[in-house]
Amino acid sequence: MADGAPDFGAAPRRATAPNAATSGARPLQIIRGSYNLRPAHRGCVATIGNFDGVHRGHRAVLVGLVRRARELGVPACVVTFEPLPHEYFRPAEAPARLTRLREKLGLLRETGVDRVLLLRFDDRLAAQPPQGFIGELLVERLGVRHLVVGDDFRFGNGRAGDFALLRSAGASCGFGVESTRTYALDAARVSSTRIRSCLECGDLQGAAELLGRPYRMEGRVMPGQQLGRQLGYRTANIALRRRVAPLSGVFAVTASGADGVARPGMANLGTRPTVAGLRTLLEVHLFDVNLDLYGEHLCVEFLHKLRDERKFDSLEALQAALAGDERDARGFFASPSIPHSQ
Asked: What is the structure's pLDDT at 201?
């Protein structure tokens, strides 16, 4: 697909569920940095982790977290990191994120948690002894009543802290410590790594099963080169603001904006080699609608991979490929059953 103005063609043929911004989810309190914690924030049920993708395994933990918090009459708090620890330790080799921070916060909001504490993962946090993390953050600043973590959770300088240390500290400081159960699907653990593998090989149905919803990306529509207009495929262009994307190619998608209506279309995610693109861009062409989307925040759900991105010898060859992509995408949406948000 090529760049173009987001000025589309007639009414939608099919729609899926609205995005998080329009779902009516409860408010989420976001605390950026432990230095912003106040005495009023003491007392919570907490969990700690990256929660990249907020997949079915994460959601099982968060449902239990919220239930326990309601039983104790305190907020449910997620402690997470920005950047993610592996991005701090190995920035060049770090795997692609499934969700940007904004996307992750929206998904956490949908689970019903009350509060997210964002800790900046930096030299200071990496060097903090595990006893300091427990005493300063969990006990003094958060006043944790109950902690939910995986039994393989490691923390503190040199990853010296573990579940046994947390349980010992909880016994002496008066908070409970509970290990999460491994969430498995098809006899294999649900994990962000497994989802990335599905996305890399174009198995969007497999990724959706692990996530509990179609894989999606969000971003704001910006002006493009308007080459798509010349080719007859006007596109909404979304800058991903990611170091690397977990998938690439041409896809059948739905996209929803402020009105919460998900409209079918097709999208190219990649560097646009035919027109010498340099950065990764998401270009979405919606079918049969006429909308002005400049500046709007779009949620794009990837439902079916049509083909890999490739370089064509001419714009005419690219235009012919786009016609084939449209035919295939429309055929996908005309099928008796397609994936949908859960």
From this structure: 96
Question: Quick one: DSSP state of residue 214?
Answer: -
CATH number of the domain where residue 293 is located: 2.40.30.30
**Cβ atoms within 10 Å of 188's Cβ, excluding its own:** 10
**Within this chain, do residues 238 and 120 fall inside the same structural domain, yes or no?**
no
Report the distance separating Cα 266 and Cα 305, nearest Å. Answer: 10
> Count of domains in the chain?
2
Residues of the chain with pLDDT under 50: 1-24, 340-342
Angle between helices 204-211 and 192-200 (to 10 degrees): 160
Give just the sign of the alpha carbon dihedral 144, 150, 151, 152.
negative
Domain membership of residue 133 as a residue range: 23-185
User: Same domain for 83 and 158?
Assistant: yes
Cβ(63)–Cβ(111) under 8 Å?
A: yes
| Total residues found in the chain within this entry | 342
Decide which of 164, 185, 206 is a domain's last residue.
185
Tell me whether residue 230 is exposed, middle or buried, using C-beta atoms within 10 angstroms of its C-beta: 0 to 12, 13 to 18, 19 or more. middle
Task: Check whether residue 119 and residue 58 sit in a common domain.
Answer: yes
Mark whether 235 and 144 lie in a shared domain: no
Strands 184-185 and 236-239: unpaired
Q: Report the alpha-carbon distance of residue 120 to residue 203 in Å, rounded.
A: 33
Cα Rg for the chain, rounded, in angstroms? 22
